[in-house]
Write a structure and sequence with these properties.
It contains nine helices and two strands. The protein is mainly alpha-helical. The protein has a two-stranded antiparallel sheet with strand order 1-2. The chain has two domains: about 140 residues; about 100 residues. Strand 1 and strand 2 form a beta hairpin.
Length: about 325
């Protein structure tokens, strides 16, 4: 008697184990089970993949906080109260790392890197070193401002002393140019970029939807989570735009920032992230949203930053920042 293939679709299969015991499994469930590796991230394949919505929200939040708390004081001068040397703009900059750092760390935790204890120790330690550099830059910037304001006020009130003693001009230059605009800015920026490199590393293999994963009613996060809806695309797009503006702002505000930003964009953005994604996914896969979507996010941001930097170089007619070029917003 012949049977059609459909006759077997719901028949149980008996599986014989090494101890001789047999168990029955539904054939349909076996067909829907994926036996290929689950590229969820840096942790073991048994852990749940990072929540795409949480990752996208955190990427947007970190970029938004950094941009608002750093670019805001440049574009808008908060009122200064009489007799107060630590002005409103300084307070805004002081708050940025306090708010942003927990968001960066939440991104690291969501990657599931700490599911692997050894890898978690290594990556976590490296991340904390870079976070310390980031925080030191912010701290030096705040300290420079704190000392600069009363010293500048004394210089304004005592022009004759300033004219006869070069110490005043030299010390003010040391505070404002060397530490506030030089050392602190680049420590701050270097720490931020290095932390983003760690995040790019731990999310390097994260895809959504996961490759080779069958969509079933028992999918851990549900079948709807496999789709990129409009909310996901908006979070992804706005976050990448804001991060691109942050990188681009380096060219506008930092000494020789255009050169530094171009080196970062071309050497790391294109040379490391770009080539990695293309090598793993091919040219077509690189532009398929969801394939290593965090790295795609960084690639898009660096592309936006490149446009901003080139536009600034044209506008400033060279590689000077806004202060060197005498351009005010």
């Amino acid at each position: 008697m012949s049977h059609s293939p459909s006759d077997h679709s719901m028949l149980p299969l008996s599986t014989t184990h090494l101890d001789g015991a047999t168990t029955s499994e539904d054939y349909t469930s076996l067909m829907l089970t994926d036996d290929k590796p689950n590229h969820a991230g840096p942790s073991s394949s048994n852990s749940q993949p990072p929540s795409r919505r949480i990752v996208l929200a955190l990427l947007l939040a970190t970029s938004l906080v950094t941009l608002v708390f750093t670019a805001g004081p440049v574009l808008f001068e908060l009122p200064q109260m009489d007799g107060v040397w630590y002005v409103g703009n300084d307070i805004v900059r002081l708050l940025e790392p306090i708010i942003a750092m927990p968001l960066y760390f939440a991104l690291l935790v969501e990657s599931k890197v700490f599911d692997d204890r050894r890898q978690g120790y290594i990556v976590g330690t490296v991340f904390m070193i870079f976070a310390g550099i980031y925080q030191q830059g912010a701290g030096f910037h705040s300290a420079s401002n704190m000392f600069k304001h009363p010293f500048k006020e004394y210089m304004d009130l005592n022009p004759s002393a300033v004219a006869t003693d070069p110490f005043f001009a030299d010390f003010y230059y040391w505070l404002r140019t060397v530490w506030e605009h030089g050392v602190s800015h680049y420590l701050y920026a270097a720490g931020g970029v290095l932390m983003s490199m760690v995040l790019a590393y731990v999310y390097r293999d994260v895809c959504s939807p996961q490759p080779h994963t069958a969509i079933t009613m028992s999918t851990a996060r549900g079948a709807d989570d496999m789709k990129w809806n409009m909310g996901d695309r908006v979070l992804w797009g706005i976050g990448a735009l804001l991060y691109g503006l942050i990188i681009g702002s380096v060219a506008i505000n930092f000494p020789k920032g255009s050169i530094v930003a171009l080196v970062l964009i071309l050497a790391y953005g294109a040379g490391v992230v770009g080539t990695f994604v293309i090598r793993k996914e091919g040219v077509r896969g690189t532009f398929a949203l969801g394939r290593r979507y965090v790295l795609q996010w960084y690639l898009t941001a660096y592309t936006i930053a490149l446009i901003v930097v080139i536009g600034w170089i044209i506008h400033a007619k060279g590689f000077d920042n806004r202060e060197e070029a005498g351009i005010k917003f």
